[in-house]
Amino acid sequence: MGENFPYHVAIIMDGNGRWAKQQGKNRTYGHYIGSNVVDRIVEAAIDEGVRYLTLYTFSTENWKRPKSEIRFLMVLLKKQLVKKRDLFLKKNVRFGVIGEIDSFDEQIRENIEGLIEATQNNTGLRVNLALNYGGRYEIVRAARQIAEEVKRGDIDPNQIDEGLFARYLYAHDIPDVDLLIRTGGEKRVSNFLLWQISYAEFVFVDKYWPEFTRDDLRAAIEEFKRRKRRFGGL
Which among 96, 151, 90, 161 has a CA at the least distance from the CA of 126? Predict the structure, then answer.
């Protein structure tokens, strides 16, 4: 496929609630349908040759939503983590999480750890869920950890460069994002992967996430291929 291919695709899965309201349903119905869309997009990403897929699932800001909606999302997350096991094992998907999972209850943490362990030897698509994730906090967290090591004398401040800093980010073992897709018609990044999207190409889709299809993913990839990526050069 060559260099002009988005090996790492990140998606802001926006519009579940608005889509549900259009259908005359509660917002929670949109989240339920949206969680199932993940399955077909994972399969589509595999078919297209994507190697890393990072999905913005629950942000640090999402805790501000109504308590009833948060309760539903937590129950849905538990069920989906169990459900995804069969799909990921069948499709050779390796699972990972970025974010502060300590804020979730014990059952969710166990389900996360169980899925990570069950798929750790898989060699296909790497799927990362961003859970209780915030891009600014990720950078602050990395800076704090580096500062602690400088204080202990383990790092010389003159050693600190972009490469060293990146090793302290959550998903330090995967490459930066090539293509960022946002559904739902909004055109902002919403505190998502601020470091990793520095040179990403953005594709904004008017469709809500429950409407997003494998053809939409393919169209975004084709749009990426048509763009000229100069990385600041000529």
Answer: 96
